[in-house]
Amino acid sequence: MPAALARIWSGVVGLACGIAWFDPLGGGGSAGLIAAGASGLAIRRRRLLGCVAVACLGAGLGALGTGARDARAGPLARLADKVPHCRMSGRVVEQMGGLGALVALDAVDCGESGGLRNAGPAAADLDGAHAGASLTARGWLIPLGSSGFDLARRRLGAAAALTLSEVEIGSVDSAPQRFAARFRSGLRAATKGIQRDRAALIRGLATGDTGGMSATSELDLRRAGLSHLVAVSGSNVAIVVGAIALAARRLGLRARLVLGAVGLVAFVLIVGPEPSVLRAAAMGGIGLAALALGRRADPLFGLGLAIIVVLAVRPGMLFSVGLQLSAAATAGIVLWAHPLAAAMHRMPALIAVPLAVTIAAQAAVAPLLALTFGEISVVAPVANLLAVPVVPFATVIGLAAGAAGTVAPAAAGVLGAVVAPLAGWVLFVAHSFGGVAWASAPVPQGVGILLGVAVTGVAATTLRRSLVSADGVT
pTM of the prediction? Predict the structure, then answer.
């Protein structure tokens, strides 16, 4: 496993470099890296050479795939340079948070400016539109600029932006996506009579949808280090799969695995293909496959393989802060949570374990938080220690409310009322800790870079020790 772990992470680094620098590499550079990587793998003499070969192969494939994606988006981007007024049809692919919705355009007719079939993805402001819904519209194709907002849209796959003067959102044709749309609507119905911030938090814990939450609550959650609770990621996937396993504990292993896989797919459909969700779902799928084969899935190996899968499917996710934070937090927990908990042996396990997990995750994401937001939460460990214990219950009851809302609205309302006090407690902790002036400390970008170097060094040392230990055992 140590050799395999080293190679999988060499592949992650190579793939990331290829995606980031695909433009200067070009087709010739990509082909050269792929050839060098394949040749190195054929030799198989030393671990270091194997890692370098895998990194070269990953870089070449990453650059080649990213270049191919950009080439496919080229015709729509060139048409958008004319800023034409067009008739268009397509379907909604996903909501991209504050970046709007990603729309796959099937046909674009821009009159004298031209038209396209299978035109490709574009970004539009379509709040509330369900993934999979058909769309017919009139409006302008707008080129994406170099601003951070447009750059984020481009990295998530959009080739152009849409400014729509007329739009009609149709039905969702796909049965799985219809189920997801009904679930989200059912959850909104279940939380309709609850105080606004509590309702938004319940939806956020269950599906990541915090629409309607006040700016004050969002700020307090972030300053208290609790915003990760509504950014659906690995913990939510673990809660869902764990709840299914607990409910099906009397069934055989095969039945539990099938139910876990179905629940995992359904959860991804409901939440949408957010970066952290895709990463967590890929890891969950790897874990289920390992159980089916009767093997143990090394968490760091699973994390590396999950990142490769996500980046192979959507290269632009490399630049997603959500994916970066999710991966860093997972790596921190895997590397440091157990040693930290062992160091707190004098504390009760109910306090030591969650506190160790929180500190490990916060330490791992601190450089990213400093570089992205210019601040680090000071109160996060204590706030998480108080808030996190109720989150699994709130998440499961919230998901149950959404499911009930599709068939029994009255029962959904009861479940919404049951989970409301739990959401109220999380908000109370957020306001109590995030609302104080010293809740977070401003951090200059240079300090963020230094933190990144320090955290990477500590992680490398921890990983090297674990690999040496594993080699000694084997």
Answer: 0.80
- How many CB atoms are located within 10 Å of the residue 73 CB? 20
Q: Where are the domains of the chain?
A: 2-69, 81-173, 234-319
Give the pLDDT mean for 226-240. Answer: 75
Q: In residues, how long is the chain?
A: 474
- Specify the DSSP element, H or E, that contains 376: strand 375-377
- Reduced to 3 DSSP states, what percent helix, strand and coil does the chain have, rounded to the nearest 5? 70, 10, 20
Q: What is the DSSP letter of 194?
A: S
How many other C-beta atoms lie within 10 A of the C-beta of residue 39? 12
**CB 394, CB 426: distance < 8 Å:** yes
Summarised one tens digit per residue, pLDDT across range 52-78 is 888 888 888 888 888 887 778 888 989
Domain spanning 81-173: CATH 2.40.50: yes
Give 173's DSSP letter: -
- Residue 472: is its pLDDT beyond 60? no
Cα dist. 244→142, 238, 250, 259 in Å? 45, 10, 11, 7
